[in-house]
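Our platform keeps sequence and structure together, in a single record for each protein. Nothing more is needed to write down the fold, since each code stands for a local backbone conformation. An entry from our holdings is shown next, in its original layout:
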Amino acid sequence: MPDAPEPSMPEPSMPAPSAPGPDAVVLPPLNAPSRTQAAGGESQMTLMSPAGMEEGDETDWAVVVGVALVAEIGLLWAAACIALWRRRIALGRARSGTPEDWTG
């Protein structure tokens, strides 16, 4: 029905805008215009730097988890070897000493 008249709606009465005070917080508009446009017209707004946007630069998450897992296992193995080495030294000192040294 393109020929139908549009119903007129009464405009709500709103107070005239006033200048914000010195302590007022001014919010940006909800529909802020896009500032950067790519060559194809799409927005380039992102949280990443442009240097990190290339596809070949990203590291797969499985590689990162694998490296962390291998490093953790290596550190635990080293700690266990050091603990066993210290116990072996303490046992050797206890055997070579007098019976009084065996208590502690």
